[in-house]
Design brief:
By secondary structure, this protein is an alpha/beta fold. It is built from 14 helices and 22 strands. The protein has a seven-stranded mixed β-sheet, with helices on both faces. It has a five-stranded parallel β-sheet with strand order 10-9-8-11-12, sandwiched between helices. A three-stranded mixed β-sheet has the order 1-5-4, covered by helices on one side. The protein binds 2-aminohexanedioic acid.
Length: 504
């Protein structure tokens, strides 16, 4: 039961295909439960199958020619209406999000806000969507490049930002004129359902957005394997991302991947240690450590390990675990038992690799017994190549890695297979600029934690965090558009490029 007594009746979720809310042909369903209270059944949703995906893809294909023909500024107006509906319902959405996924309500509002931000930004892209107009090398000839949609976009999203990430993907896809088949994570089908209901209300025509809930193995793979879905966008684990890229590669599909992270905060001896400790706690334990951008490594100059640890430990021990809907909760639950088992496994590994400073166990007692809670955990004295310092845990586990100086810190930051976000705390402006240059990550923060990317800048990572694509910002349009170069010759005669107008 969530805050305030009786929980609402469970939702009966359906798929949206060609504008109709329908049941899966599989006849099967799955449950979504509140991770802060496993007795609270959020709803029962369709366990979709390849046959549902085939119908959804067909609907998206049918809707494509008309949607593509709508002028982009007019498509943008539908996005803007959608942003308005998200604003209108922000509190309802945020509460649903906390109930289904667990993050604390202030963060849930932030998640919805991020969806609003990207919808507004992409609405504006309807009036920009810039290409280049450039001079031709020949007289009486113009040359320009324009962006065009690709077709049906397959969008596969995670549970950790169940409103923001679907919006990061659908908004640029739609404003560019693509149609969508959307498969949300199995842990957050209700969030996806609400988002899509509001899309229908905003006026996206039937078939432009189709929702199919269900497993990655059935629904996700069917989208990836469909010959009629030329572009796939996926956020999730590096293991799954590689598998998707392999499958999609056989069909030469465009695939945009946002995958794992092992994000580091560097604290130099001259840093404001209170500010650094605040940034570390927020980045490591916000969203219970379940962000791609979460800080899981603190790389600290040996001279200040002692004072920093003292400040950190005090802050971490003060964190209050509980239902994210309650006002005094700092840290919500993990998403499910599988996640908790993985965290437990890494804590066991950590006991051999470092010194356990605090946490290390499932959090139990009272209402916590009904949810999936884990104590915020800190290991000190961890070596840069230790497993807990190298592998993505995706939970509230932080490793403290002492180093001799800035150069050793750079080596440690970059010695990982991932490259999403990084941060440095220092008061030395020259060193801050070196870090901006030296850290091998798609996002670098100076005197701030590793989380909190804004939607008008490119979001994504280097190395095994992705495959070179970016979400958000105008960079997002690269994923969902084809370039077309157009040459217009108004000379009235044959002009040969590279041949006419050349000396000799
Ligand atoms: C993610 O964890 O996948 O920068 C997204 C941040 C958020 C987005 C995180 N704006 O932490």
């Amino acid at each position: 039961m969530t805050e305030g007594g009786t929980a609402p009746a469970p939702v009966a979720g359906r798929n949206l295909i060609a504008g109709e809310w329908i049941e899966s042909v599989s006849g099967r369903a799955f449950e979504s439960r509140n991770p802060a209270d496993r007795d609270d059944l959020v709803g029962v949703f369709q366990a979709g199958s390849a046959a549902d995906v085939a119908m959804a893809v067909r609907a998206a294909e049918m809707a494509y020619p008309a949607w593509r023909a709508v002028p982009a500024p007019k498509r943008g107006e539908v996005l803007l209406r959608y942003a308005g509906l998200l604003r209108r319902d922000k509190e309802r959405l945020a509460r649903a999000l906390t109930r289904e996924m667990g993050k604390v309500i202030a963060e849930a509002r932030g998640d919805v806000q991020e969806a609003i931000d990207i919808a507004e930004l992409m609405a504006g892209e309807g009036r920009r969507m810039f290409g280049d107009t450039v001079p031709s090398e020949l007289p009486d000839k113009w040359a320009m490049s324009i962006r065009q949609p690709i077709g049906v976009a397959g969008i596969i999203t995670p549970w950790n930002f169940p409103m923001a990430i679907p919006a990061w993907k659908t908004m640029p896809a739609l404003v560019a004129g693509n149609t969508v088949v959307f498969k949300p994570a199995s842990d957050t089908p209700w969030c996806a359902t609400i988002l899509v209901e509001l899309m229908a209300e905003a006026g996206f025509p039937p078939g432009v957005v189709n929702l199919v809930t269900g497993s990655g193995a059935e629904v996700g793979d069917a989208i990836v394997d469909s010959p009629d879905v030329p572009v796939i966008s996926f956020t999730g684990s590096t293991t799954t991302g590689k598998r998707i890229a392999e499958r999609a590669g056989r069909r030469l599909k465009r695939v945009a991947l946002e995958l794992g992270g092992k994000n580091a905060i560097v604290v130099l001896a001259d840093a404001d240690l209170d500010l650094a400790a605040d940034g570390i706690v927020w980045s490591a334990f916000g969203t219970t450590g379940q962000r791609c951008t979460a800080c899981s490594r603190v790389i600290v100059e040996a001279a200040v390990v002692g004072p920093l640890m003292e400040k950190l430990e005090r802050r971490v021990r003060a964190l209050r675990l509980g239902d994210g809907l309650l006002a005094d909760t700092d840290v919500g639950p993990l998403i499910n038992e599988t996640a908790a088992a993985k965290v437990e496994e890494y804590v066991e590994i950590g006991r051999r690799e470092g010194e356990l400073v605090c946490g290390g166990s499932r959090a139990t007692g009272g209402a916590l017994d009904r949810g999936v809670f884990f104590e915020p955990t800190v290991f000190a004295g961890v070596a840069p190549m230790a497993r807990i310092a190298q592998e993505e845990i995706f939970g509230p586990v932080l490793s403290i890695i002492p180093v001799a100086d800035y150069d050793a810190a750079v080596t440690a930051v970059n010695h990982t297979r991932y490259g999403l976000s990084s941060s440095i705390f220092t008061r030395d402006v020259n060193v801050a600029f070196r870090a901006m240059r030296d850290f091998e990550t798609g996002i670098v923060y100076v005197n701030a934690g590793t989380i909190g990317a804004e939607t008008h800048l490119p979001f994504g990572g280097w190395k095994e965090t992705g495959n070179g694509h970016r979400e958000a910002g105008h960079a997002a349009l690269e994923t969902y558009t084809e370039w077309k170069s157009v040459y217009v010759d108004f000379s009235g005669r044959l002009q040969r490029a590279q041949i006419d107008n050349q000396p000799g």
